[in-house]
Structure formats: C-alpha cells, structure tokens
C-alpha cells in the first residue's frame, strides 16, 4: 500500500471514532495503541475522569502537539461515516485536525518510531477551557519549540490573532405585537449596539449566537448575543474592550443594555521565525513546493504553550473556513504533503 492510501485509511479510521470535546477516551486509546505499535511509550496525563492527554518524551526540546477533540456533528449528516469524493475525505474532524493527525501517525509508522520530537496529543481544545494544553504545561517545562497542528491552508504561522469575546444583553418592556411602535424592541436595539461597536473598533463584529423574539405576537422582553471582535497586532485586548464598552455606553435607548466579558486573548507573535525556517526547509525538500508564512486567525493551543515561554509554529493543511461546518473535508494530496513533510522533518531536525 502506498503512502497516500495508508494515510487515507488512517484518517477514515480516525473520523469513524467520535471524539467531541469531553468524549476523547476512545480516540486516545486508538492513538496510544498506534504509538505503542511502533515502539513508542506514551504516558497518560488525566485531566478529568476518562479524559487524558498522551505524551511521548524522548529528551527533545521540540514538541509536536495535536488536539484530538472535535466539535459535535452540528449540521453534518453522517458525520462519523467518512466519505471519499473527488479526491477529498469528508467527515467531522477531517480538517480540524484529524487530517494532520493521520499524517503524523502514518509518518511515525513509516519511520518505525524513529522520531526526534516529543509528541503531545491533547484533549479539550475546542472548549474555551482548553484544559488539555493547559495541564500539558506541567510535563513539558523543558520544551523550547512547539509545532501546533491546525488547518492553516499549509501556511507556517508564526503569529496568532487575538480576540475579545463578550455577551450583550438588551432588556426592555414587552407589549402586544400590534402595539410594537410604543416601545423599543430589544432586538432592534441590539442591532444598534452592534453597529456602534463596529464603528468604534473599525472592524466587523462576529455574531456567534443571537437569541430573542417570540412566536406569540409580542415584543420580546430580552435579546442576547454572544459576540467576538478580533484583536490585531500592535494593540491589547484591554484597549479593544474599552472601545467596545464605550460604544455600548453611547447607544441612547430606554432599554437596559448589559455587557459581560467572556474571554480575551492578545495577538501573539510567537517569535519563532528560526524554527519556522527550519520546518519550511523540510517542507520544501519533501514536496518541492515553496511554503509561506502566515498568521493564524483563530485561537490555538499555541497560546497556552507560549505563556510558558515556548516558541510555536502553527501549521497544517486543510481549509479552516470549512472546518466545524457540514462541508468539512481534506484533500488526499494535502494528506500526502503533510506525511512527506513529517518524514523529512524527522530526518532534518535530529
């Protein structure tokens, strides 16, 4: 069986094991068995009952870290039945991030476990808590560099976008729907608040979830939204949040408008250009293609590792835009590229 077929088979096996956040035990047992089969000796680090990270230590100060959890199926039908179509493998987690995981496991198998890196397989990345990488820090204090596997369209990301995540709540007076002109509708006020924030911070607001309204022909009492604003290089999340709160205060309304901070992360420059150049050289030799540097637009476990002084590069083939959606997939050629890259990096970075 050639390399492409081997990695495709592994990815299909991984997709077939449901691993939404909180239910990662089965996939960790699968990974553990694959590691032991090539002579590696992973240790378990429990983060909760039936939830554990895996770590392979070999004395290296370079770590490859991959999260094993996914989001739930959401709107994806037959999410755990891998479908191969037009050269792509479809299924929950195909791009985020089981494609890269399949490539790594295949490369480990082909190299018979001869790998110069330490390896971490962590749980809970898809939750705000990110308990897996947070607890992993206890075991990797001597690590200097980390390669974080995520779908980056094949770019080697040495920086990561920050964000302010917050909840808005607008509460007003409820009346019969035929008399809607006599009060302010909290849903309409929420729209004004969002517009005010976008003007104040000079960027769009990501509306993650909005709740409000009624089927019973009545102006709703309340409308709430979970929202997010990105934090760019050269600014702090505290500065961005203050502008958000100013924008909320400036909206004139008879409704009560509430703001609550949910989570915040600064823009991160991992300061990992030297490590990235070494990885890119391996990629160039393995694929014959010219790699590129990028900025990861989403939060990753790299944020936790960076807080411990570890210089990170975020990398992986796969379409971030389609991840978490019913379109999630990864092309077989990208699986091959990543496998060849890992094999070359195992040789170059010994």
Main attributes of the structure:
350 residues, alpha/beta, Aminopeptidase, 2 domains, six-stranded mixed beta sheet, four-stranded antiparallel beta sheet, 16 strands, 33% helix
Q: Can you put this structure into words, describing what you see?
A:
- The protein is an alpha/beta fold and 350 residues long.
- The chain folds into two domains: 3-161 and 267-348, Zn peptidases (Aminopeptidase), CATH 3.40.630.10; 162-265, Alpha-Beta Plaits, CATH 3.30.70.
- Helices cover 33% and strands 26% of the residues.
- It contains nine helices and 16 strands.
- The strands form four sheets. The chain has a six-stranded mixed sheet with strand order 1-2-6-3-7-15. Strands 10-11-9-12 form a four-stranded antiparallel sheet.
- Helix 1 (3-15) packs across helix 3 (94-110).
- The longest helix is centred in the N-terminal third of the chain and has 17 residues, at 94-110.
- The relative contact order is 0.19.
- The mean pLDDT is 97.
What's the structural blueprint in terms of helices and strands?
Blueprint: H1 3-15, H2 25-37, E1 43-48, E2 51-56, E3 62-67, E4 83-85, E5 88-90, H3 94-110, E6 118-122, H4 131-136, E7 145-149, E8 156-160, E9 162-171, H5 186-201, E10 206-212, E11 222-231, H6 237-250, E12 256-265, E13 268-269, H7 273-287, E14 293-296, H8 302-307, E15 311-315, E16 329-331, H9 332-348
Parallel strand pairs: 3-6, 3-7, 7-15, 8-14
Antiparallel strand pairs: 1-2, 2-6, 4-5, 5-16, 8-13, 9-11, 9-12, 10-11
Helix pairs in contact: 1-3, 1-9, 3-9, 5-6, 7-9
């Amino acid at each position: 069986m050639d390399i492409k077929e081997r990695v495709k088979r592994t990815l299909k096996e991984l997709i077939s094991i449901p691993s939404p956040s909180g239910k990662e035990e089965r996939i960790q047992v699968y990974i553990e068995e694959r590691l032991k089969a090539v002579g590696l000796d992973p240790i378990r680090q429990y983060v909760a009952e039936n939830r554990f990270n895996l770590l392979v230590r070999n004395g290296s100060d370079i770590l490859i870290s991959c999260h094993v959890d996914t989001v739930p199926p959401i709107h994806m039908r037959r999410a755990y039945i891998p479908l191969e179509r037009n050269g792509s493998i479809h299924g929950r987690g195909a791009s985020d991030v089981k494609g890269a995981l399949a490539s790594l496991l295949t490369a480990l198998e082909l190299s018979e476990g001869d790998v110069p890196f330490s390896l971490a397989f962590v749980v809970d990345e898809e939750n705000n808590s990110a308990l897996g990488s947070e607890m992993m820090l206890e075991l990797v204090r001597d690590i200097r560099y980390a390669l974080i596997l995520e779908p980056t369209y094949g770019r080697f990301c040495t920086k990561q976008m920050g964000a302010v995540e917050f909840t808005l709540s607008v509460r007003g007076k409820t009346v019969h729907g035929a008399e809607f002109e006599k009060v302010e509708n909290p849903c309409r006020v929420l729209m004004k608040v969002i517009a005010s924030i976008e003007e104040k911070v000079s960027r769009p607001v990501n509306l993650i979830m909005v709740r409000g309204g009624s089927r019973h022909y009545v102006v709703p009492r309340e409308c709430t939204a979970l929202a997010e604003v990105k934090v760019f290089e050269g600014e702090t999340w505290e500065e961005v949040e203050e502008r958000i709160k100013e924008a909320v205060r400036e909206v004139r309304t008879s409704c009560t408008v509430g703001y609550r901070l949910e989570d915040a992360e600064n823009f991160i420059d991992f300061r990992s250009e030297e490590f990235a150049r070494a990885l890119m050289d391996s990629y160039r030799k393995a694929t014959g293609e010219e790699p590129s540097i990028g900025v990861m637009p989403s939060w990753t476990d790299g944020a936790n590792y960076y807080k411990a002084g570890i210089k990170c590069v975020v990398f992986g083939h796969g379409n971030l835009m389609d991840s978490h959606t019913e379109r999630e997939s990864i092309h077989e050629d990208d699986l091959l590229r990543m496998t060849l890259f890992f094999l070359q990096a195992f040789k170059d970075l010994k």
